[in-house]
TrEMBL record:
The keyword Repressor does not apply. This is Deacetylase sirtuin-type domain-containing protein. It is found in: Mitochondrion. Residues 23-348 form the Deacetylase sirtuin-type domain. Belongs to the sirtuin family. Class I subfamily. Gene3D superfamilies: SIR2/SIRT2 'Small Domain, TPP-binding domain. SUPFAM superfamilies: DHS-like NAD/FAD-binding domain (SSF52467). Keywords: Mitochondrion, NAD, Transferase, Transit peptide. Its main location: mitochondrion. The lineage of its organism: Eukaryota, Fungi, Dikarya, Basidiomycota, Agaricomycotina.
Length: 383
């Protein structure tokens, strides 16, 4: 029997030695970032992780020291979610009940300043391509704000269906997105919002609890995948809707899964191939806000180094790449360094993209999750 566990960092071989850029003044760190990006000649690939979304109120899996920040949390593994049995049905009830309450905060989260800075690198053609491990859709929201500004420089709403002005700015969601779901038997997709509405219709007591949480602000602790903690909750009466398409075809199919990669699940081959292709096309890698604990992301850094490409990390805490030869690291918050760099860029460049970036550099919203959510112990949910 293969034991599947949550990916974690390997034990350190010794104390970490911080580079000078980790403690240098922000302008000096920004100048070093600028020299790095200049060397990329518009072909730098950015890779991001959960640390980028913390300022949007979405808790990261690991703390600043790299340890799993909630060791008592047990996620649903892929094999449990898709098991076609009474036991699997209970796992799906647990997953969807908890996700029903945890999805709205992720859905409603707004890009924070770091999302806007990374989108600015894309819009300016400095680092146009992006791979993210996050499933929260916030990088797409940030880039959409810049595209909308380019369509209508006054900030008015663009005409319906107006084409995006930036051209190709690929965003590859390495671990999928919470925005869509699909059934496993027919592969039929629908938006998560549509499935959320179906979950609410099937479970009116949970729908009422969700409304009360929204009104009072007394919400359970939310993890980056939209799962929440509900100590002692009884999920036996929770009803998971069947796939609407399958039901219309008179087929029984209650195994519906979000379009995210679960623990214990392998990446789709197309996504894996696309990630390696983006690394091959890039001149170098900028890695932001991640410990690279998952191998699917870490192997991209290994591939880049095997191809002789430079890698610069800006992230807090230890990472899986700390011992990889040739990886330079600033162990610090990325936002201030990116902002200082972009402040200089918009002073020296001209064009519509620069104007849009200048107008939206302060558009990000900061809503950090509290370090301790004592309120979650008092959350009321259906017994």
């Amino acid at each position: 029997m293969v034991r599947i566990s949550i990916p974690n960092l390997p034990p350190s071989a010794g104390p970490r030695i911080l580079s000078g850029l980790s403690v240098a003044p922000v302008p000096e760190a920004a100048a070093a970032l600028g020299a790095f990006l200049d060397a990329g000649r518009g072909r730098t690939l950015t890779i991001t992780g959960a640390g980028v979304s913390v300022d949007s109120g979405i808790r990261a899996y690991r703390g600043k020291e790299g340890a799993y920040s909630n060791p008592n949390y047990k996620p649903i593994f892929y094999g449990e979610l898709v098991e076609d049995s009474a036991r699997g049905e209970m796992f799906r009830k647990r997953y969807w009940a908890r996700s029903f309450l945890g999805y709205p905060p992720v859905r409603d989260a707004l890009p924070n300043p770091t999302h806007m800075y990374i989108a600015s690198l894309q819009a300016l053609g400095i680092a146009p391509a992006l791979i993210t491990q996050n499933v929260d859709n916030l990088h797409r929201k940030a880039l959409a704000l810049l595209e909308a500004r380019l369509r209508t420089p006054t900030g008015d709403a663009p005409p319906p269906g107006h084409a995006a002005p930036l051209g190709p700015r690929p965003i590859l969601e390495l671990h999928g997105t919470l925005a869509r779901v699909h059934c496993l038997r027919g592969g039929h997709e629908q938006t998560r919002d549509a499935f959320q509405a179906a979950l609410g219709a099937e479970n009116p007591a949970w729908e009422a609890a969700a409304r009360e949480m929204e009104e009072t602000g007394n919400k359970p602790r939310t993890n980056p995948d939209g799962d929440v903690e509900l100590p002692g909750a009884d999920y036996t009466t929770f009803r998971v809707p069947e796939c609407a398409v399958c039901s219309g075809q008179r087929k029984h199919n209650s195994i519906v899964k979000p379009n995210v990669v679960f623990f214990g699940e392998t990446l789709p081959e197309g996504v894996k191939d696309a990630s390696f292709h983006l690394v091959e096309q890039a001149s170098q890698l900028l890695v932001v806000g991640t410990s690279l604990a998952t191998y699917s992301a870490f192997r991209l850094i290994k591939a880049a180094r095997e191809q002789g490409k430079s890698v610069l990390m800006i992230s807090q805490g230890p990472s899986r790449a700390d011992a990889v030869d040739g990886v330079e690291k600033m162990e610090r918050k990325a936002g201030p360094v990116l902002r200082a760099y972009l402040d200089e860029v918009v002073k020296t460049r001209t064009g519509a993209e620069v104007d849009a970036v200048r107008a939206l550099l302060d558009a990000g919203v900061t809503r950090r999750p509290p370090d301790v959510e004592d309120s979650r112990e008092h959350v009321q949910y259906p017994p």
